[in-house]
DNA sequence: GTCAAATCATTACAAGCTAGAACGATTCTC
DNA sequence: GAGAATCGTTCTAGCTTGTAATGATTTGAC
C-alpha cells in the first residue's frame, strides 16, 4: 500500500472543495480495489491489461501501449507475467511477423469474470453511504465531468504497484 | 506526469461504475492540481506539508509524519526543501530540545494564500461541466461517501512527484 | 542522584520501479 | 534490392521510498 504526504486541509472556508474530495476518494477507491484484486494475485496494471485485451482481442503490444498510455517496454514485463500464468497468449501474426497479437486464454476469460464480480462488490462498498437513486445521480454527475474533462472512457492513469 | 497501466473497461454493462469513475476523475484531478501548483515551484507533498503546518503550527515533525501517514525520514528532506526556501522554520522547543517545532514564515503564509487561490481555480475547472446546484449536490454526496468510508478530513494518500 | 530505556531528528543504505535509449528482426517504400 | 521505418525486447541509469543504524536529549526506575 502506498503512503505519501499529500495535500492537506483544502481551501479553508466551507469545507473541502469537490476536486479535493474527488482526489481523496478516488485514491481511496483505487487502493481498496487494489486490495480486492490482490486476493486474485493480480495488480491493478495486470488487471488493466487483461481488460484491455478482452475489450479488443488481437491487438499488438504497441497499440495496447498507446491506448494505456504506458511505454512499450513496460508492457513486455506485464505480458510476460500474464503469459507465464496462462492468462493471455502471444500469437505471431502470419501476415506481419513483427507483431505479437494478444488474446485471452479460457483461463484468462474465467479470471476476468471473477474480476467483474470483484468490481461490482467494490463499487457497492464504495457507495455504501448512498441509496440507489443517489448512486444514479452521482454516476450521472461524474460521467458528465469525465466527458467534459476529455477523459478516455475506461482508462485512467495508474496509481502504484501493490 | 505519471503514466501507468491501469484498470480499463470497467464492469461491462451499464457503463463504468461509480467507483471506477471516482478513481479515474480523482487521478485526473490530482494530476491537474500538481500541474497548477507546479507553476508555484511546489510539489503536492510540499503543498500538503505547508497546509499541515498552517493548520497546526508548532507541531513536531514526528507528529506531522503521523498525521500525514509518511515515514519521518521522508519529512526531513521535505522540511529541508521548504526551510531552504524560507517558507517554514524549525524552532527548537526550549522545554524539550529534541523536538523541532515547525512554523510558517510570512513568506510561507503568503504562498499559502496563493495556493488557496490555485485551489479554488482548480476546483472550478474540474467542475466546469456542472452548474452551482449540481456542484452542491456532488459535494454533498462525496462528503457522505468520505465520511462513511472513514477518510480523515483533509488528508489523502499522495500520488506522485511532479 | 544516577543509569538504562525511550524518544526525536537525522543520516546511511539498500531495494524497487520506471522511463528512455540501444538492439535484432521484419516489413514497407522508392 | 537498399535504406528507412516498425515492432518487440533488453539493458541501463536515475529516481523515489522505506528500513535500519546514529547521536542527542529526556524520562523513569531504583
TrEMBL record, chains A, B:
Residues 1-147 form the HTH marR-type domain. Signal peptide: none annotated. SUPFAM superfamilies: Winged helix' DNA-binding domain. GO terms for molecular function: DNA-binding transcription factor activity. It holds the Pfam family MarR_2. Gene3D superfamilies: Winged helix-like DNA-binding domain superfamily/Winged helix DNA-binding domain (1.10.10.10). This is Transcriptional regulator, MarR family. It comes from the Bacteria. GO terms for biological process: response to stress.
Amino acid at each position: 500500500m502506498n503512503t505519501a504526504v499529500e495535500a492537506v486541509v483544502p481551501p479553508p472556508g466551507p469545507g473541502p472543495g469537490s476536486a479535493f474530495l474527488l482526489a481523496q476518494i478516488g485514491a481511496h477507491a483505487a487502493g481498496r480495489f487494489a486490495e480486492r484484486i490482490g486476493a486474485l494475485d493480480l495488480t491493478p496494471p495486470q488487471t488493466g491489461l487483461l481488460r484491455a485485451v478482452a475489450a479488443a482481442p488481437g491487438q499488438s503490444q504497441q497499440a495496447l501501449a498507446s491506448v494505456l498510455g504506458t511505454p512499450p517496454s513496460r508492457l513486455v514485463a506485464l505480458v510476460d507475467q500474464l503469459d507465464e500464468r496462462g492468462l493471455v497468449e502471444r500469437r505471431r501474426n502470419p501476415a506481419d511477423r513483427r507483431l505479437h497479437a494478444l488474446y485471452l486464454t479460457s483461463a484468462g476469460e474465467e479470471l476476468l469474470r471473477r474480476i467483474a464480480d470483484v468490481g461490482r462488490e467494490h463499487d457497492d462498498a464504495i457507495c455504501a453511504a448512498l441509496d440507489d437513486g443517489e448512486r444514479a445521480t452521482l454516476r450521472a454527475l461524474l460521467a458528465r465531468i469525465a466527458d467534459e474533462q476529455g477523459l478516455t472512457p475506461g482508462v485512467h492513469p495508474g496509481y502504484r504497484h501493490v
